[in-house]
Amino acid sequence: MCGIVGYLGEQEACAILLHGLRELEYRGYDSAGVALLEASGLRCFKAVGKLDNLAAKLGDTASSGKVAAIGHTRWATHGKPTEANAHPHGLTHSQVVHNGIIENYVALRASVATAFLSQTDSEVIVHLFEKHLAAQPPAADTALAAFRATLDALHGAYAILLISETAPGQIFFARQGSPLQFGLGAEGCFFASSDAPLIGHCAQAVYLQDGHWGVAEATGVRLFDAEGAAVLPQPAALPATSLAARKEGYRYFMEKEIYEQPQVLTDILTGRLAADCLSLDELAPEWLRPLRSITLCACGTSYHAALVGSYLLERLAQVPTKVEIASEFRYREPVLDRDGLFVVLSQSGETADTLEAIKLAKAQGLATLALCNVDNSSIVREADHRLLLRAGIEKGVASTKAFSAQVLTLWLLALYWGQAKAVLSGERLAQELAALRQAPSVMQVQPGVHERLHRLSKRYLHGHGFFFIGRDLFYPLALEGALKLKEISYLHAEGYPAGEMKHGPIALADAQLFTIALMARSCLYDKIKSNVEELSARDATIIAITTEYFELADDIIQIRAYDHPMLEFFEMLVVVQLLAMEIAIRLGNDVDMPRNLAKSVTVE
């Protein structure tokens, strides 16, 4: 969830670090800092809030000559967002930046005699390093040995960059459960916790594996595994440009990414959709056929996509399906079907709970599959097979296009599996393929609808909450619509299966309860119509998303009519995303970087 950058070379480092940190802003953060190690010594700059505050602190500061520099954007876990708690953390002659969590930091703090300036778990790393350094006999690699001894004491997840005046011209690095990579370019050696800061500086990157550690120096990079054996770096190509990460005229990245969804769905279908069948080159039919059940495991928005997938997999592939929340899954001693498939969904591929869930499933001998938006991510590397989402960089913290990509990919998986089992063929398969072909055009934002949502949004800035209700496939969409609204507007919102309202929640119904009713014509329309009538009778304010006039609605957002529920699903998805965004903008919120949230949750 935090961001790391590093640079070793002779170029001006402040600009390089700030540029890299700006490329990581989408992850969410509450403070930032940089440290520079030059011939004249160490300098450190930290600020709370946005990177502009750090830039102001730096002012005209510029590095000179050979420099080892590290930078960090922090999202608070241990300790409040303060300058003292911001990274880098230093002691006498060293500075460190760290992503992840040091689980045994309390015991480690007690093991050193030096005083701590922060409330963080991360600061203990630099204290341990200087303690071990003082205990090492003088030698050429004293600092490297002290760094290794420090790593041996740490329990938890970490990506670490460390610099020290005792080792000028070097950056020590390590990865365990939190992403870190480096690239070598003409200007020097660059480190980052994701691709974006490296693009433009390097053509290739080395993605560190868990247990990898080492040191970068003027002569190159020395890389070791967990046992201390030398590792030959294996570079992989980086994208050529970060153009897709720019706003391109939209007000916010979130808005741009909502509008990009038709292209995302087109990209997902490219090469997979033939006239009368589907092909998924990543998954052989003979691999799928023997699997007799499926477990979908995810967090947050990805969990909602998994719920949609459960309906599709059981209907289209006739595969018994369970859906698990990753943060709860591994602590309840789950009993898994060893003849089943375990599927994890993650936008970033670094979600800590989901990563641990797939490791547990693999330990129990299950076949594993990752649906992920980031190649070379930890979850992708852990899984037996992968289906990349093809959604491109998603900078908005509140996921939009990655969610639609997950849902479409699960729909593809369900159809492909049903086709492989021969339970889906003939006219039914033809209908599904026809609907798939329509999906990208369905997600085209209708200018009139967007303008109507912009105007309507001013009516829904008060009240005591929102209920999003739907039935069948539209229940997970209700959950996702409520999550989007609460993430970026900070208004209370809940998603419910419409039939459950009378089992308690309807007690809240009054004129200040805004009910977003997902009234799909193709799926249980009469049922949800009855549920909405019950709410209207209790004076709830009704906003109906539907294909036709509904007399009890206070506001209607009309969508186009379709025969297939997934097409109604995707058009309604665009509506609830835009509604949440327009309400949040009216409230003056930064919809790209909502408070307290991060893009990639790499700690539990």
Give an overview of the whole structure.
- The chain has 604 residues and is of the alpha/beta class.
- It has three domains: 3-243, Aminohydrolase, N-terminal nucleophile (Ntn) domain (Glutamine Phosphoribosylpyrophosphate, subunit 1, domain 1, 4-Layer Sandwich); 247-443, Rossmann fold (3-Layer(aba) Sandwich), CATH 3.40.50.10490; 445-589 and 596-604, Glucose-6-phosphate isomerase like protein, domain 1 (Rossmann fold), CATH 3.40.50.
- 34% of the residues lie in helices and 23% in strands.
- The protein is built from 18 helices and 24 strands.
- Strands 3-2-4-1-10-9-11-14 form an eight-stranded antiparallel sheet, covered by helices on one side. The chain has a six-stranded antiparallel sheet with strand order 5-6-7-8-12-13. Strands 16-15-17-18-19 form a five-stranded parallel sheet, sandwiched between helices.
- A hairpin with a 3-residue loop joins strand 5 (89-90) and strand 6.
- Helix 15 packs across helix 18 (565-586).
- It is globular and about 80 Å long.
- The model has no long low-confidence stretch (mean pLDDT 91).
